[in-house]
Amino acid sequence: MSTQKKFEELNDVNSMPYDILREVGNIGAGNATTALSQLIHAKVDMTVPKVELLNFPELSDIVGSAEKTVVGILLNLSGDIGGMMMFMIDYSAARHLVNQLLGDEYSSNAEYFSEMDLSALKEIGNIISGAYLSALSSLTGLKIIESIPYMAIDMAGAILSVPAIAFGELGDKALLIESEFNEIDYSVNGFFILIPTEESYGKILSSLGM
Question: May I ask the CATH architecture of the domain 3-207?
Answer without folding.
Answer: 3-Layer(aba) Sandwich (3.40)
